[in-house]
Amino acid sequence: MAKAARECTNCGRPVTPERRNYPYAESGLSNVVLQGVEVAECPACGHSEVTIPHLAKIHRAIALALARSPVRLTGAQLRFLRKHVGYSGERLARYLHTDKTKISKWEREEDPIDTSNDRLVRLLVAALDKDLSSHVSSIAAQLPEISDESGKSRELHIDVECLTVSFVSVLTRRA
Length: 175
Fold this sequence. Notes:
5-stranded mixed beta sheet
């Protein structure tokens, strides 16, 4: 259903929002696509406005999807999860018995995240977010199935209306 026209906040001309997929780079992740987001582009000045509903729920859906991801976490995904639970690099390092420099190197992908810490971060995030804590056992059950493939090979698609998530192979999508 088309939305009623409204005014461009840049030039005041009428714009009509449309629902479409939106690469959600503002999340800090280059591989998250929000489906069904309202986007209003002004044909006169080119300004575009995006309306993302219930942002906290979308971030929680991203965190849960990353914790359940069938592939290794990237540095950016680790950073997203750390920030999602409100931890500094130093605080996360204490939980993982390492130092904040190591966390920083993982997040910048100067060092690969070892498999033990990858899995521990997933469980830790689920345990620390009260809305995700009920998923700890299902995340734990999936840990042996995580492939060593990089999380860079998949896009995370989230339907903003029903918050369903799916991983899409980047190679399949671009083929």
